[in-house]
Amino acid sequence: MLNVHLILFLAFGAVAVAGAINLLAQTHPINSALSLIAVMAALAGEYLLLGAEFVAAVQVIVYAGAIMVLFVFVIMLLNAGVEERTQGSRVAVLFGIPGMLLGSILVAWVVLQHSGTESVAAGALPGDPKTIGQMLFHEFLLPFEITSILILIAIMGAVVLASKPPTSPANAAARKVD
Amino acid sequence: MNQLVPLSYYLVLSGFLFACGVAGFLIKRNIITIFMSIELMLNGVNLSFVAFAAHWHALAGQIFVFFVMVVAAAESAVGLAIIIAVYRTRETLNVDQVNLLKL
Hints:
- The complex is a heterodimer of chains A (178) and B (103).
- In chain A, helix 1 runs antiparallel to helix 2 and helix 2 (29-49) packs antiparallel against helix 3 (53-77).
- Chain A has 178 residues and is mainly alpha-helical.
- In chain A, 75% of the residues lie in helices and 1% in strands.
- Among the domains of chain A are: 1-82, Four Helix Bundle (Hemerythrin (Met), subunit A), CATH 1.20.120.1200; 128-165.
- Chain B has 103 residues and is an all-alpha fold.
- Chain B has one domain (7-93): Helix Hairpins (Orthogonal Bundle).
- In chain B, helix 1 (7-27) packs antiparallel against helix 2 (31-56).
- Chain B is elongated, with a radius of gyration of 17 Å.
- Chains A and B meet through helix 1, helix 2, helix 3, helix 4 and strand 1 of A and strand 1, helix 1, helix 2 and helix 3 of B.
């Protein structure tokens, strides 16, 4: 019997895994950014499979849209080129990669062994905007409002940090001497 | 009833994405790529949040994903502003050459 959900999960998961590996393999930041966008789009598909429709939409709009546009914008603004390869510690390469592989295989084995046969039912949970919104504005109202303050502070911080420092006459004079 | 995907598959995928983020954070030398690795880690955690929310029938997990996204957005705005400020003073994005707080 054809398990459509499993096939879709594997397809989106393959895209996500390939994107994550490509992010590590590429040396130019713009290529890494594009593979990260692929990972995020694939994860939106996974969220849809889990019945979280609103989260999937927000993932595409906020993550793949807004945040990654900011990243690409900064990469182009700073004219970031191919990163210089540095001579890493040889011990780290010798033991790090096999150690990471071993550790991930171990964790995956343990998780797969001990999780039993419980499955995630697609669409079992109402993840539509109405339910989410009601929950957000009733039970989670205080965190929601605090979040708005956090965003306000972040906006002000970004503006202050990214704006050019005002050049006072003394500073300009010092620069001329240099 | 639909055919289902085991919860552990989602957890393994989420763990793999997180591990890739950690590896990128450690091996990448470009400060922007390091920042993207952090976003990858956050995405991996979000996937496990949504998977657990569906598994335990607790919608709060999806709400938490929103808060993670909001914090990620705020973090990337401030972080990229810091990167721009660093580039303005150092003229480099290589983290090996940005090892002093003072110029």
